[in-house]
């Protein structure tokens, strides 16, 4: 599960009202266990289950498991992050229109 995109897929059943965004969880090395708010690091297998609004997934990972190879250096740990062609990448910059019609493209 060193691929961020594959980790993100495990969050398909992540509660919609969860206090931390699934994308941030996957980016921080976590996979969803399918139970409550329990996530597990794909590398150190450390688990965290008590999330609050405002929590930062990577910061919590670093505090709870400071010796985790993923926390120490995601690249050295073999992490494959989402790229510009990943499923969450924006396709373009947002457009702002001030007139009544959109410009021709």
UniProtKB/TrEMBL annotation:
<dbReference type="GO" id="GO:0005634">
    <property type="term" value="C:nucleus"/>
</dbReference>
<dbReference type="InterPro" id="IPR050784">
    <property type="entry name" value="IAP"/>
</dbReference>
<dbReference type="Pfam" id="PF00653">
    <property type="entry name" value="BIR"/>
</dbReference>
<dbReference type="GO" id="GO:0005737">
    <property type="term" value="C:cytoplasm"/>
</dbReference>
<protein>
    <submittedName>
        <fullName>Uncharacterized protein</fullName>
    </submittedName>
</protein>
<dbReference type="GO" id="GO:0051726">
    <property type="term" value="P:regulation of cell cycle"/>
</dbReference>
<dbReference type="InterPro" id="IPR001370">
    <property type="entry name" value="BIR_rpt"/>
</dbReference>
């Amino acid at each position: 599960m060193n691929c961020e995109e594959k980790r993100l897929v495990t969050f398909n059943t992540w509660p919609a009202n969860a206090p931390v965004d699934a994308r941030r969880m996957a980016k921080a090395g976590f996979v969803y266990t399918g139970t409550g708010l329990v996530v597990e690091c794909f590398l150190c297998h450390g688990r965290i289950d008590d999330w609050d609004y405002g929590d930062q997934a990577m910061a919590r990972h670093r505090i709870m498991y400071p010796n985790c190879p993923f926390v120490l250096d995601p690249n050295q740990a073999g992490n494959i992050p989402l790229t510009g062609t990943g499923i969450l990448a924006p396709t373009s910059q947002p457009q702002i229109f001030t007139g009544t019609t959109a410009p021709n493209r």
